[in-house]
Predict the structure.
Amino acid sequence: MVRGAFSRDWAIGTAAWRKALARDHAHLALAPELSQSEVKELQSERWERALESALQESGRSPAELASAPKSAPWKRALARKLRDAVAPPYRWLAEKLCMGKPGSVRAYVHAARPGVVGRN
């Protein structure tokens, strides 16, 4: 698999540059002293807040998620926005947005990207 080849030592640059890059982006990492369950809980809370905010911005309510069709255009846009902003798993998006199977959500999100030919 190609992915494994790029998961380590892929950055081209001096050791000092890599250290500076790591220092500049350290704030993006979750605290290493947290347990895996605590990290998952923090992530879930972040996703929930982002969903609430996105619903409010779009003028939609949580009740509309259950009543609207699975592939409603506004749901697809909401899924893409959330995926781009906070990267929740497709399974979480499928469940919270009432969009069916995670694979369907993945297809909707991908199709909504600029430059992708296909259904929008």
Notes: The two ends are 31 Å apart (CA to CA). The helical segments are 2-5, 15-25, 36-58, 62-67, 73-86, 90-96, 102-111. The chain has a mean pLDDT of 83. The first helix runs from residue 2 to 5.
